[in-house]
Structures are given as C-alpha cells and as structure tokens.
Amino acid sequence: MATTLDKVQVVTVGVGWTGGIIAAELAKQGIQVVGLERGQNRSTEDFQMIHDEYRYAIRLDLMQDASRETLTFRNNRDERALPIRQWGSFLPGEGVGGAGVHWNGQTWRFLPYDLQIKSMTDEKYGENKLGSEYTLQDWGITYEELEPYFYRYEETTGISGEDNPMGAPRSNDYPTPPMKSTPILDRFKEAASNLGLHPFQMPSANLSENYENPDGQQINACQYCGFCERFGCEYGAKSSPNVTVIPTAQQTGNFELRTDADVVEVIKEGGRATGVRYIDLKSGEEFIQPADVVVMTSYVLNNTRLLLQSGLGEPYDPETGTGVIGKNYCYQILPGANGYFEEEKFNTFMGAGALGATVDDYNGDNFDHSDLDFIHGGSMSITQTGRRPIANNPVPKDTPSWGAEFKAKSLHYFNRALSISAQGASMPHRDNYLDLDPTYTDVHGNPLLRLNYDFTEQDRKLHEYLSDRAAEIMKEMGANIVEKASMPEHYDIVPYQTTHNTGGVIMGADPETSAVNNYLQMWDHDNVFVVGASAFAHNGGYNPTGTVGALAYRAAEGIKEFLDTGGQLVKAPQKTETV
C-alpha cells in the first residue's frame, strides 16, 4: 500500500531544464516545490574524469535505462510495433539535469513564422499548400508575446552569440560575446558570403567567458575540449540545470529534490489532479505525493506516456483525427553534404558542442516557397564539436567497409573531412503520433509508449532541396569530393539522428485541437501544467532547448497566477493600445 505524504503546493515530475526553471522561479517567490527525479543526482564534480568516449558516447552512461523502460516503434499502423532494446535514433537522458547535462548547448529561438505557421502559410501560399493529411496548426501564441521569456532563459544561461540577420528579432544583445571562430568556421563563412548568404556565429551555451547570471550562479568559460554531447562538463562551462536553476531553487529553502523517484501515475478526482504516485527505486516503496499543482517536466516521450497512462486528456485517434494526447509527434530530418579535402588538414579533434557557424537563409519562410512543393526549411551549419576516434570514421561513399583501402582512407580523411548539416523542420502528419502499446510493458507492468512514425513527402522534398544548398556551399569551400546526404526510404530507429523529438501534448488556442493553452496548462485538468517540447505543434529548423526554456518561464508565471487566484484557467493579459 502506498504511503501518503504531506501535501505540497507544487510537485514536478522530472528535474531537468523545465523542472529546474519551474522550481527556481516558484521557490524564489516562497512557493513550496517538490521535484521528483527517477535518476541519480549529479554535479560538476561527477564529471572530473569525463573524457571516456566508450562509457559516455558509446555505452550511453547518462541515458535512460532501456532495460527498465523503453518504447516500441513501427512505421505505420499495419505493422506490429516492437520494443527498442538499445537507444539509437535518439537518446533520452536520465538523472538530475536530464538532457540538459549531455546536450551540445546550441541554443536558438524559434522563428515568428514557426509560432503562427498555419495562418502565415495560408495567407501567403493559400490553404492547399500542404495536403489535408498534414495537421498543421498555430501555437496559440505570437513571437512578440514569447520574446521576453526567450531572453530570460538566455540571461539565466549566459548564452554566447551574435546577431543573426535572418533570425527572430531581438530586444537585447546576447549576455556574452560569441565563441572563438576557427579556420574551419571562417572557411564556411567566406564561402557562404561568396554565395550571397548571411553567415554568423552559432549561439552557444558553452560560454565564451566567465559569467554570473542574475540569480548569482557562476558559469565558467569554455575550454574547447571537445567533450560536450553525451558528456557532462567537467569545467562547469556548459550551461546546464545543475549549475544554474537547480542550485537557485535549492538555495531558497523552498525546494526539495527527491531522486530515485519514478512517477507512475497522476492521481485525479473530479476533473483535477490531486497529486502523483511514485515508486522509490531503491526501496521499492510506493508513495503518494499530494499537491495543489502537478507539473509534468519530464522528457517529451515521458510527458505524453504518463498522461495517457493516467487517463488525462483525450487520446489522439488517427482514424478520426479527434483527441489531442499523442497528436503531432514530430522529429527532424538531417540534410547536408560532406566534403573531402586532399591536401589541407583541419584540427577537427578540437572544439565544443556549440562551436559553429550558421546560415538561416533557408530556414522558415526566409526564402520564397511559391514554386516549391514543401514549406519551411532549416538552419544550415558547420560545427566543430570535437571529432572523437571511436565514433567517427569519415570516408567517401565508394570506400570498402574493410581491408587495406578502408584503413588507408580512414587515416587519410580523418582530419581532411568536413560536414555541413541542416536541421530540417518536421511538419505534423496525421499518421505520426504517440499512443500506448497494447502488448509490451515496463518493469512496473505499465504499458510502454508506442511511436508511430515515418518520413513524409514533405520531408523528402525538403531534404533534397537543403542537401543541394549544402553541397553548393561545400563546393565553394574547395572540397575535392562533395557528397550530398541521402535519405532512406523509411525512418528507422537506428542509427543516431537527433534527440529533437517534439509534440504529443501540443499547445494552442482551441481545446478541440490542443492539449494545453499558451501557459502550458491543460484545458481539461487546469491544475496540471505540461512543460517541454511536447507542447510544440510542429518541429522547427533549430535545436528546441531555447524555445523550451522560454515556454518554461512563461509556464512558471502561469502557475504562480493560478495559485494566486485560487485556481482557474490562466489567460493572457489583455493588450492595451497606447494613445
């Protein structure tokens, strides 16, 4: 039998970026918050011996244990979904800090076009630009409304960057200057400029200089060691929840962190949540944590799964198009081009997770789509993240996969190969969604989440277009061999592609087509807030974390208002005209 604990004002399910932001913002205002995290606690001290590629990059030490909880996958409804036994296409994090520990730090603001994509596309290109199978919709918020929250996240994390001439408008400069440039990035910038494009230094959470944020937390300057993605930062120089928002919450005395706490149910009664039930993974004991407000701050897939498992919201039905929980799952595509140089060598083993240069000329609606049979686009970048020896072996496509020639070309091209990659936006399709698997269960006996997903015609056409543009830049950079990225016939769960999963609990202005409002508050359970990229109505041409952070700050504001008013749907403040 579960032990019922004392009631708290707010409980968060997960303690990463979103859980940390919610905890810090509310605890600073005297609100009692309990954060439940099923993984272990971590700090900078735990990463002092982090340069172990096999442990972290190959064996995935910081990721969710797939032997205890995984998900099942199929391309379409005619197939039987099977469990994922080892992570490949994406890497859900686990432990305090979540994916904010092992991320690269590339930090973007989604474009104004993203947030009003349906209305802006219809206005410019007509309502039939995409077919009826694409469930495109606006987010229920404008960029102007969200812009102050973007800066609050950037200020908290000290983002290093410079002006993006094709990006979203900014009211403030970045808190810290851009990272150092390198000969590789300079070559990309020169080639892009020669082609009439607008290159700039990528915005980075690997900081260019020591920085103290507004909460008094110190973030150190990046050492360019090349161990960012899949690793924690040994220097405390990569902004993570562990060095920013979580310490801020703890220092208030109003935040309690509980690790090894695996939440298995949101308990509800009469249209409201009363708390959560969780299992202590060390003792096996069950606990019920009552709360005035339940905030879902886990990873995209886990947010959706727990709502479905708890019976909150109406599950999405791809046959009828009704329901909202599980709807609009989106991923990303990775168009691009590889270049192989015969004479020149590059220091590709050095770098940082967000050390890169980008062009946004082919992102969003920055280029005319009138004569194209797709919408949106993607940011296009060259990055110098630190090429490590086990996982990297760049060779031209015609190279044998073993033998003397394979060895010779592997050695020759290891520091003579460069890549340009685009993050291609993903548009929602009625057949790409999340639901519960009817067959397979986790270690607790609860149904696994089922991923139903395949590439669409929109994806294929966008991939071809962006790969052509990347090849043009690579040729201008002087590569002797240029190879465009290819796209498989069907999406597969391996190899690794990106951890930028979005959707499942999408935001909007209409309860019929969205699960949460623009404060990420559930329409039908108004004391439940679901915070994260699960709220994205589609996926854009950037890394999602900057937009996730902005939405989390807005959600914290909404939760405070909800508590202050005694509990009701939070509404955006009415705009007033200045005379």
Question: Which terms summarize this structure?
Answer:
disordered C terminus; FAD/NAD(P)-binding domain; 579 residues; alpha/beta; 8-stranded mixed beta sheet; 22% helix
Question: Topology of this structure?
Answer:
Blueprint lengths: L2 E2 L3 E6 L3 H11 L5 E4 L16 H6 L12 E4 L7 E2 L15 H4 L9 H4 L1 H9 L17 H15 L25 H12 L5 E2 L9 E2 L5 E2 L25 H7 L3 E4 L2 E9 L2 E9 L5 E11 L3 H11 L16 E4 L5 E5 L10 E9 L18 E8 L18 H10 L3 E8 L8 E9 L5 E6 L4 H20 L4 E4 L17 E3 L23 E3 L14 H20 L15
What does this 3D model show about the protein?
The protein is an alpha/beta fold and 579 residues long. The chain has a domain at 1-42 and 62-102 and 140-159 and 241-313 and 445-453 and 500-579: FAD/NAD(P)-binding domain. 22% of the residues lie in helices and 20% in strands. The protein is built from 12 helices and 22 strands. Strands 1, 2, 3, 9, 10, 11, 12 and 22 form an 8-stranded mixed β-sheet that branches. It has a 6-stranded antiparallel β-sheet with strand order 6-15-16-17-14-20. Helix 1 (17-27) packs parallel to helix 12 (545-564) and helix 6 packs across helix 12 (545-564). The chain starts with a strand and ends in a 15-residue tail after the last helix. 53% of the residues are buried.
- CATH-level-4 superfamily name of one domain: FAD/NAD(P)-binding domain
Helix content: 10-25%
User: Major sheet: size, sense and barrel closure?
Assistant: 8 strands, mixed
Mean pLDDT level: 96
Q: Total helix count?
A: 12
**What's the architecture of one domain in CATH terms?**
3-Layer(bba) Sandwich
* CATH top level label of one domain: Alpha Beta
Secondary-structure class: alpha/beta
Evaluate the radius of gyration.
23 Å
Could you say which overall geometry the principal axes of the C-alpha atoms support?
globular
Report strand %: 15-25%
